């Protein structure tokens, strides 16, 4: 009987030790996770099926909120009204794997209800959301759905670099096209100018065609000025033209300090 009681005490001690070790290991894992989450500059969140916030990290502070004040509130309350309809299927994503939400643009509202918009060309903040459903089972099932976990990242710098790359590509294409066209136009134009100058030299001052040839020479010189600008294109700049179309603005494109479009 004594040996039997002793073995039960030993078993209880072992189970207690294992439980304590498990709690300690879980504490280490949670502490490590929380440390990582705190150090990430992006907003990490968890929401339940209705959109109620279960967890949100300290990164939300840069938009004026304290994490604690948002727990239990609806995440959609800080999404721009114009984006809420689509956000309902994005930030509260229940799909997983390749079907999950990835890099979806939206606008958040700061605590003072200013929007955090997405137009990178106006140097505004661009927010990209990625999210997926978390399930208690290996295969996603409605009855095992736990919550949605997502991350909202400030992609302004990345999108600015992408825009800069696009601008560089446009500038390269415009420079090559303008330079090639200028070269092709300049040669026949030089011939035209030479012939007109010869004709003017041979004409009498009273010749009835003299004024017309002088105008041809004047316009040809203007074309040469445009060609010089085409040769000196520095960047991609456009201006409005007929029918709402944009065309290359060689005046601005060949000068430093012009506003890019």
Structure write-up:
The chain has 261 residues and is an alpha+beta fold. The chain folds into three domains: 1-39; 41-154, Beta-Lactamase, CATH 3.30.450; 161-253, Helix Hairpins (Orthogonal Bundle). Helix content is 46%, strand content 17%. The protein contains six helices and nine strands, in the order H-E-E-H-H-E-E-E-E-E-H-H-E-E-H. The strands form three sheets. Strands 2-1-7-6-3 form a five-stranded antiparallel sheet. A two-stranded antiparallel ribbon has the order 4-5. Strand 1 (43-47) and strand 2 form a beta hairpin. It is rod-shaped. The relative contact order is 0.07. The model is unreliable at 117-125 and 256-261 (pLDDT under 50).
Keywords:
261 residues; alpha+beta; Beta-Lactamase; Helix Hairpins; 3 domains; five-stranded antiparallel beta sheet; two-stranded antiparallel ribbon; 6 helices; 9 strands; 46% helix; disordered C terminus
Q: How are the SSEs placed, and which strands pair?
A:
Blueprint: H1 2-39, E1 43-47, E2 53-56, H2 67-70, H3 84-87, E3 101-106, E4 108-109, E5 115-116, E6 127-135, E7 145-154, H4 156-202, H5 210-231, E8 238-240, E9 246-248, H6 250-253
Antiparallel strand pairs: 1-2, 1-7, 3-6, 4-5, 6-7, 8-9
């Amino acid at each position: 009987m004594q040996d039997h009681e002793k073995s039960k005490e030993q078993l209880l001690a072992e189970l207690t030790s294992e439980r304590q070790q498990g709690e300690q290991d879980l504490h280490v894992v949670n502490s490590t996770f929380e440390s990582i989450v705190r150090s990430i500059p992006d907003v990490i969140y968890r929401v339940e099926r209705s959109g109620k916030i279960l967890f949100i990290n300290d990164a939300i502070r840069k938009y004026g909120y304290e994490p604690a004040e948002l727990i239990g509130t609806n995440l959609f309350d800080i999404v721009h009204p114009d984006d809420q309809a689509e956000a309902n299927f994005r930030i509260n994503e229940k799909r997983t794997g390749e079907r999950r939400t990835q890099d979806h643009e939206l606008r958040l509202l700061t605590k003072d209800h200013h929007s955090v918009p997405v137009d990178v060309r106006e140097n505004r903040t661009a927010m990209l959301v990625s999210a997926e459903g978390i399930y208690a089972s290996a295969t996603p099932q409605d009855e095992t759905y736990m919550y949605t976990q997502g991350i909202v990242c400030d992609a302004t710098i990345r999108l600015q670099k992408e825009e800069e790359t696009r601008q560089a590509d446009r500038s390269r294409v415009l420079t090559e096209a303008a330079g090639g066209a200028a070269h092709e136009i300049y040669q026949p134009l030089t011939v035209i100018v030479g012939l007109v100058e010869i004709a003017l030299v041979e004409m009498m001052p009273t010749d009835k065609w003299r004024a017309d040839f002088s105008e041809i020479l004047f316009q040809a010189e203007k074309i040469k000025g445009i060609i010089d600008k085409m040769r000196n294109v520095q960047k991609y700049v456009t201006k409005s033209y007929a029918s709402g179309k944009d065309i290359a603005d060689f005046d601005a494109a060949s000068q430093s300090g012009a506003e890019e479009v």
